Amino acid sequence: MLGEQKVVFSGVQPSGNLTIGNYLGAIKNFSRFSDTYKTFYCVVDLHAITVRQVPAELRRRTYETLALYMACGLDEKKNTLFVQSQVSAHAELGWILDCYTMFGELSRMTQFKDKSAKHAQNINAGLFTYPSLMAADILLYQTDVVPVGIDQKQHLELARDIALRFNQLHGDTFTVPDGYINTDTMKIMSLAEPTAKMSKSDPNPNAVVYILDTKDDIMRKFKRAVTDSEACVRMAEGKDGINNLITIYRAFTGKTVEEVEREFDGRGYGDFKEAVGEACAEGLRPVREEFARLSADKAFLESVMKNGADEAAYYARKTMSKVRRKLGFVN
Ligand code: TRP
Question: What pTM, to 2 d.p., does this model score?
Answer without folding.
Answer: 0.91
